[in-house]
Amino acid sequence: MSDLPFIARLRSRLRALPPWWVDVALTSVVMVAQLWPFLAHDNPHPAPWHWWGYAVVITAVTPLLWRRRAPLPVLAVSLAATSMYDFVDNVPAQPVWYTGMISIYTVAVYSPPWPRLLMLFITICGGLLLVGSSETALRGTVLFVAAYAGGRAVSVSRAYAAVLEERAAEREREHRVEAERAAERERARIARDMHDILAHAVSIMVVQAEAGPVVIRSDPARAEAAFDAIAASGRDAMVQLRRMLGVLKEEEGPRAPQPTIGDLPTLAGQVTGTGLDVAYSTRGEPRPLPPDVEVAAYRITQEALTNIVKHAGASRADIRLRWEDDALTIDITDDGLGSGLSLPPGGNGLIGIRERAAACGGTATAGRRADGPGFQVSVRLPLTAVAARFTV
């Protein structure tokens, strides 16, 4: 077991080498192995070994340098050369023709099905017909078939590894795309939150700032309350912005809680300080909600009240929550006629309300009231989807 890490490292380093270096080293080793009988065996004849044997060995082994680029021609040259080795008698016996085994292994790895099967058939038939000894023919057949089987095993293993690598790359691409989409959704959420916070705070501050100079001489106490409301709105906006931007800092410690439905009465009280009479009511039995749904309900109500302050010219607004069996309904109505503050036009208030409701699986509608003057925003958040999220 202690040798396995060493073998794994050695295999990894060999795979990292350029293929040409590996082929040169392999050709050199095979050349030495095929020429070794000329040095290790005693020649029974008085003359040296015949030059023909050297020529055949060199001709059969040298093409291994191109075995990856032309596996079929290399095998054909190797088989043709080795079949001519015994044309003369004064040559040493070759126990195994390694060049033929390596060539057919390479054909099994790199060649298409029909050419490699045809070359395997030719190799086996040629060995059986040209080799005189049945034992030698059987040994050669077994060795060549084993080399071919090894090559096929390597080819299948590489193909399987390529498939796994492609799947891993595909999963990585999917994860990257999903991360980009999540980042885009997060940027959109932050943009909506900043819009809601700033629009609400600025609207209240403008209302109070316009009312303060009017009553500063006739009603100093009311003017002082207006300026206190401006300061409170500014501080509240700063707290919420710091809370929201804090989630972007990795080193941030415990984060302050996000606003929830339980903060709606406080929100109504803040808006009441602008001179708009805001009534808050709830009906039905409250249910636990996920934090993102709680935040969405608060922000939707905040944006609707901001729109009333900016555009409605209303004297009264109502916030009504209705807990039903399968949904939470939020209605925000006013009695305005549309002569609101002279604030810059534009914004994404109603669009943001619809997006927040849709993100929670709900719907949002907005339009003129059917029962009198004013405007109404109605939001329906399904509780069945919320319950399913809690049970997952």
From TrEMBL:
Keywords: ATP-binding, Kinase, Nucleotide-binding, Phosphoprotein, Transferase, Two-component regulatory system
Domain Histidine kinase/HSP90-like ATPase: 294-384
GO MF annotation terms: ATP binding; phosphorelay sensor kinase activity; protein dimerization activity
Residues of the DUF7134 domain: 19-145
Cross-referenced InterPro entries: DUF7134, HATPase_C_sf, HATPase_dom, Sensor_HK_TwoCompSys, Sig_transdc_His_kin_sub3_dim/P
Substrates-to-products reaction catalysed: ATP + protein L-histidine = ADP + protein N-phospho-L-histidine
EC number(s) recorded for this UniProt protein: 2.7.13.3
Transmembrane segments: none
Sequence ranges assigned to domain Signal transduction histidine kinase subgroup 3 dimerisation and phosphoacceptor in this UniProt record: 186-251
GO cellular component: membrane
Leading EC class: transferase
Protein name, per record: histidine kinase
Organism of origin: Streptosporangium roseum (strain ATCC 12428 / DSM 43021 / JCM 3005 / KCTC 9067 / NCIMB 10171 / NRRL 2505 / NI 9100)
